[in-house]
Design a protein that fits this description.
148 residues; mainly alpha; flat
Length: 148
Amino acid sequence: MPAERTSMRLIKEVLRLKFESGLSLRQIARSLHIGLGTVSLHLNRAKEAGLSWPLPGDLDDNGLEHALFPHQLAPVRSGLVEPDYAAIHKELKRKGVTKQLLWEEYKQAQGEHGYQYSQYCQRYRDWVLTLKRSMRQIHKAGDKLFID
Protein backbone atom coordinates (compact mmCIF):
# COMPACT_ATOMS: atom_id res chain seq x y z
CA MET A 1 0.00 0.00 0.00
CA PRO A 2 1.15 3.50 -0.45
CA ALA A 3 2.62 5.51 2.40
CA GLU A 4 0.34 4.20 5.10
CA ARG A 5 0.99 0.49 4.80
CA THR A 6 -1.77 -1.78 5.91
CA SER A 7 -0.66 -4.00 8.71
CA MET A 8 -0.32 -7.60 7.63
CA ARG A 9 -1.61 -8.52 11.08
CA LEU A 10 -4.87 -6.70 10.31
CA ILE A 11 -5.24 -8.51 6.98
CA LYS A 12 -4.59 -11.86 8.65
CA GLU A 13 -7.21 -11.00 11.25
CA VAL A 14 -9.75 -10.15 8.53
CA LEU A 15 -9.09 -13.51 6.85
CA ARG A 16 -9.30 -15.38 10.15
CA LEU A 17 -12.58 -13.76 11.16
CA LYS A 18 -14.12 -14.49 7.78
CA PHE A 19 -13.01 -18.07 7.24
CA GLU A 20 -12.49 -19.43 10.74
CA SER A 21 -15.20 -17.59 12.64
CA GLY A 22 -17.62 -17.19 9.73
CA LEU A 23 -18.44 -13.55 10.49
CA SER A 24 -20.14 -11.30 7.95
CA LEU A 25 -18.29 -8.39 6.38
CA ARG A 26 -20.16 -5.91 8.58
CA GLN A 27 -19.35 -7.87 11.74
CA ILE A 28 -15.67 -7.98 10.78
CA ALA A 29 -15.64 -4.24 10.06
CA ARG A 30 -17.24 -3.48 13.43
CA SER A 31 -14.99 -5.79 15.42
CA LEU A 32 -11.78 -4.43 13.86
CA HIS A 33 -12.96 -0.79 13.69
CA ILE A 34 -12.30 -0.51 9.96
CA GLY A 35 -14.51 0.32 7.00
CA LEU A 36 -16.69 -2.21 5.24
CA GLY A 37 -14.94 -1.37 1.97
CA THR A 38 -11.57 -2.14 3.54
CA VAL A 39 -12.75 -5.58 4.65
CA SER A 40 -14.15 -6.26 1.20
CA LEU A 41 -10.95 -5.06 -0.46
CA HIS A 42 -8.74 -7.34 1.63
CA LEU A 43 -10.96 -10.36 1.04
CA ASN A 44 -11.09 -9.69 -2.71
CA ARG A 45 -7.32 -9.32 -2.88
CA ALA A 46 -6.87 -12.59 -1.01
CA LYS A 47 -9.29 -14.30 -3.40
CA GLU A 48 -7.45 -12.90 -6.44
CA ALA A 49 -4.14 -14.07 -4.98
CA GLY A 50 -5.57 -17.56 -4.44
CA LEU A 51 -5.04 -17.44 -0.69
CA SER A 52 -7.16 -19.47 1.69
CA TRP A 53 -7.35 -19.88 5.45
CA PRO A 54 -5.24 -20.98 7.20
CA LEU A 55 -2.42 -19.25 5.38
CA PRO A 56 0.50 -21.43 4.33
CA GLY A 57 3.06 -21.76 7.13
CA ASP A 58 5.94 -20.67 4.91
CA LEU A 59 4.19 -17.40 3.97
CA ASP A 60 5.75 -14.55 5.95
CA ASP A 61 4.54 -10.93 6.06
CA ASN A 62 6.64 -9.91 3.05
CA GLY A 63 5.32 -12.81 1.02
CA LEU A 64 1.75 -11.97 2.01
CA GLU A 65 2.25 -8.33 1.10
CA HIS A 66 3.72 -9.27 -2.27
CA ALA A 67 0.82 -11.66 -2.96
CA LEU A 68 -1.85 -9.11 -2.04
CA PHE A 69 -0.23 -5.99 -3.49
CA PRO A 70 1.80 -7.11 -6.52
CA HIS A 71 1.56 -3.83 -8.43
CA GLN A 72 3.35 -1.59 -5.98
CA LEU A 73 5.91 0.90 -7.14
CA ALA A 74 8.52 -1.28 -8.78
CA PRO A 75 11.96 -1.36 -7.18
CA VAL A 76 14.58 0.82 -8.74
CA ARG A 77 16.56 -0.94 -11.42
CA SER A 78 20.25 -0.84 -10.73
CA GLY A 79 21.92 2.17 -12.23
CA LEU A 80 18.83 4.38 -12.48
CA VAL A 81 18.63 7.43 -10.24
CA GLU A 82 15.30 8.24 -8.60
CA PRO A 83 14.15 11.82 -9.12
CA ASP A 84 13.57 14.03 -6.09
CA TYR A 85 9.77 13.85 -6.12
CA ALA A 86 9.31 16.41 -3.34
CA ALA A 87 11.38 18.94 -5.29
CA ILE A 88 9.42 18.18 -8.47
CA HIS A 89 6.16 18.70 -6.60
CA LYS A 90 7.34 22.02 -5.22
CA GLU A 91 8.66 23.24 -8.57
CA LEU A 92 5.43 22.38 -10.39
CA LYS A 93 3.62 24.94 -8.23
CA ARG A 94 5.68 27.72 -9.78
CA LYS A 95 4.32 29.56 -12.80
CA GLY A 96 5.60 28.32 -16.16
CA VAL A 97 7.19 25.13 -14.82
CA THR A 98 6.12 21.88 -16.49
CA LYS A 99 6.91 18.20 -15.95
CA GLN A 100 8.55 18.17 -19.38
CA LEU A 101 10.90 20.99 -18.38
CA LEU A 102 11.77 19.34 -15.05
CA TRP A 103 12.34 16.00 -16.78
CA GLU A 104 14.71 17.61 -19.29
CA GLU A 105 16.74 19.10 -16.42
CA TYR A 106 16.73 15.75 -14.61
CA LYS A 107 17.72 13.85 -17.75
CA GLN A 108 20.50 16.32 -18.51
CA ALA A 109 21.90 15.87 -14.99
CA GLN A 110 21.52 12.07 -14.91
CA GLY A 111 22.19 11.16 -18.54
CA GLU A 112 21.89 7.41 -19.09
CA HIS A 113 21.12 6.89 -15.40
CA GLY A 114 17.78 8.69 -15.55
CA TYR A 115 14.28 7.49 -16.38
CA GLN A 116 12.66 8.23 -19.70
CA TYR A 117 9.79 10.72 -19.69
CA SER A 118 6.90 8.23 -19.42
CA GLN A 119 8.43 6.41 -16.42
CA TYR A 120 9.42 9.72 -14.85
CA CYS A 121 5.78 10.90 -15.02
CA GLN A 122 4.34 7.56 -13.89
CA ARG A 123 6.63 7.32 -10.88
CA TYR A 124 5.84 10.94 -9.96
CA ARG A 125 2.08 10.20 -10.19
CA ASP A 126 2.54 7.13 -7.97
CA TRP A 127 4.47 9.26 -5.47
CA VAL A 128 1.74 11.94 -5.44
CA LEU A 129 -0.80 9.28 -4.45
CA THR A 130 1.16 8.69 -1.26
CA LEU A 131 0.68 12.27 -0.08
CA LYS A 132 -1.89 13.10 2.55
CA ARG A 133 -4.45 15.59 1.39
CA SER A 134 -4.70 18.70 3.49
CA MET A 135 -5.56 22.32 2.96
CA ARG A 136 -3.63 24.84 4.93
CA GLN A 137 -5.29 28.19 5.39
CA ILE A 138 -3.13 31.06 6.48
CA HIS A 139 -5.04 33.95 7.97
CA LYS A 140 -4.45 36.82 10.33
CA ALA A 141 -5.94 36.47 13.79
CA GLY A 142 -9.20 38.39 14.09
CA ASP A 143 -9.41 38.97 10.33
CA LYS A 144 -12.09 36.31 9.70
CA LEU A 145 -14.61 34.39 11.75
CA PHE A 146 -14.95 30.63 11.19
CA ILE A 147 -18.02 28.82 12.49
CA ASP A 148 -18.68 25.08 12.39
